[in-house]
Amino acid sequence: MYQQVYPIYGLGVVLALSGLPVFISKLIAEQDDELQQVAIARQLWRMLLVIALVVVAFLWGWAPQIALAMGDRRLTPVIRSVSWMFLGMPFLSVGRGYHQGQYLTWPTSITQVIEQVIRVSIVVLVAVMSLHNSWNIYEIGTYAMASAPVAAAVATLIIILASSSLIKASHVPKSLVSNKILLKRLLVEGGALCLFSSMMILLQLVDSFTVKSALVDSGVSSMDAMQLKGIFDRGQPLIQLGLVMATSISALLVPSLTESYLKGQMVEFRRQFQLLLHVCVAISALCTIGLIALMPQINQLLFSNQQGSLTLAVNMVSILLASQITTYSSVMQSLNRFSQIVIGLVAGLMVKVVTNYVLVIHFGILGASLGTVLALLVTLLIVWRAVPAYLHWNPGSKFNIKLTAVCVIMGFSAWTVGKLMTVLVGPGRLASILVVGISVVAGIIIALVLSIKVKLLSAKEMLLLPHGKELLKKLRQ
Contact at 8 Å (CB) between 342 and 199? Predict the structure, then answer.
C-alpha cells in the first residue's frame, strides 16, 4: 500500500527539494541586489502557494477516483494522508532556492536530513505498532504516509527560522519581473527541471495505475495482484542506490565541463565530456551487472525470499539507461537545450503508458520491468540524437570493449562466489548477509584489478578526475 502511493510522495519531494529549488536559485542569482532577490522570492512563494492549495484540494477531493484508477478504492485514505505534504512545498522550495541562489547550501542539507530522519522514524514506529495493534494494510499505509506531511511541517518550520532575512525584510520594492513572465518561466523552465528530476518516479507512477489492474484483468486475484505488485516494487530502492552511485561521482565533473564550454575551450569540453560519460557508464554498468548476478541472494537478504528475482534483475537495466540519460541531459542543460530533454522524457513516458498494460497482461510483473526498460531506451535514443554529433557515444570503441570484458568477468565471478557461498553457509536470510557481503567485495576487487590491468580509463582521463594526479601516482607505484 505504501509503495502504491509512494510516487505521489516522490513527486512532492522533487518539487520541494531538487526541481523547483534549482530553478528558483537560478532566478535569485539573476537579480541585481538583495532586495530584488527578496521581492522575486516572495512573488514565487505566492504563486506556489496557490498551486499547492490546488494540488492538495485535487488530491483530497479526487482521492477516491485516483484510488479506483490504481485498482483499489480502499487506497483513498492513504492518498489523502500524503496530500497534506504539498502545503510545505512553497515554503521549502522557495526557502531552499533562495539560499542556494545566495550560495548557501546548509539550509537545504539540514532540512533534508531532518525531514528524512523524522519520516523514516515514523514509518518504523508505525511498522512496530502495527504488529501490536493488528492494523490492516490500509491503516498501516495511511499512518506510514502521514510521516510525509509531519516531516514536511518540521522542515518547513526550520526553513522559516533560517529565512528570517527573507521574511523580515522591509521596504521591499516591487519585483521587476511581471507575474505573467514569471509564471511562464516557472511552468516552462521549472517544469522541465521537475520533469527531468522525476523521471523514474513518473515511470513508477504509471506502474501504480496499470500493474495491479492488468494483473487482475489477466486472471490474477486482487490479493495476489497486490502481492505481485509489492514484489515488483522491491526493485525501486535498488535502482535508486545504483543511480546515486553512478551519478554522484560523475556529477563532480559537471562544473568543469560547463566552465570549458563557457570559455569556448571545445577540445577540453569534448575530452571532459568523454571522461564524464566513461565514468558514468562504467559505474552504472558494473552496478547493473553486479545486482543482476547477485539478485537472488540480495532478494533473500532484503525480503526473506527470492520471489520475482528475474523481474528485479531485468529492472536493474534501468540503472544503466537512466544514468546515461542523466549524463546526456546534464550536458544538454549546459548547452541550454531544454526542449530536447523534455521531448525525450515525454516520449519515454508515453511509451510506458501505452505498452505497460499490454506487457503486464502477457508477461506478468516481468512486463512492468520490460516497459520501464523500453521507455528509458526510447528516452535515451532521443536525447542521444539531440546531442551534438561530436559528443556521440561509439558502442564499438576500445573503452566499451574493455568495459564489456570487465563486466562479464566480474559478473560471472560474483555469481560463482554467490553460488558457492550459498552452498557453504545455506540459503537462509541471516546466511545471505555473509553471502552477499563476500560476493560484493569479491566483485569490487575483481572489477578494480581488471580495470587497472586493461587501463579502462586512460592516463589523460584519470588526470581529469578529482585527485586524479595522486591516484595515477599510486597506480604507477
Answer: no
Q: Please identify, among 152, 178, 197, the residue that sits at the C-terminal boundary of a domain.
A: 197
Q: Which three cell numbers stand for residue 169?
A: 525584510
Residues 169 and 255 in one domain: no
Angle at 179 between CA 174 and CA 184, to 5 degrees: 140
Determine the Cα–Cα distance for residues 445 and 449; give it in Å rounded to an integer: 6
The grid cell for 159 is 526553513
202 assigned to some structural domain: no
Query: Do 34 and 172 share a structural domain?
Result: yes
Is residue 272 in a domain? yes
Residue pLDDT, tens place only, 197-221: 788 899 999 999 999 999 999 999 9
Task: For residue range 291-315, list pLDDT tens digits in order.
Answer: 999 999 999 999 988 999 999 999 9
pLDDT for residue 243 is more than 60: yes
Query: For residue 458, what are the CA distances in angstroms to 44, 241, 255, 265?
Result: 47, 27, 21, 21
Task: Kindly report which listed range (53-57, 214-218, 242-246, 415-419) carries the lowest average pLDDT score.
Answer: 242-246
How many domains does the chain contain in total?
Answer: 2
pLDDT of 451 above 70: yes
Q: Do residues 297 and 432 make contact, with C-beta atoms less than 8 angstroms apart?
A: yes
Residues 349 and 469 in one domain: yes
Q: Give residue for cell 581529469.
A: 464
Percent of the chain with pLDDT over 70: 93
Are residues 308 and 389 located together in one domain of the fold?
A: yes
Q: What residue numbers bound the domain in which 3 lies?
A: 1-197
Q: Which three cell numbers stand for residue 399?
A: 573503452
31-58 b/e (C-beta count within 10 Å ≥ 16 → b): beeeebbbbbbbbbbebbeebbeebbee
In the numeric block, which cell numbers belong to residue 368? Answer: 512492468
Is the pLDDT assigned to residue 466 strictly greater than 70? no
Among 166, 197, 228, the domain boundary falls at: 197
For the question of whether the overall pTM of this predicted structure is more than 0.90, the answer is no
Q: Is residue 203 part of a domain?
A: no
Question: Which comes out higher in pLDDT, residue 462 or 68?
Answer: 68
Angle between helix 266-293 and 254-262 (nearest 10): 160
Cell readout for 217 is: 484483468
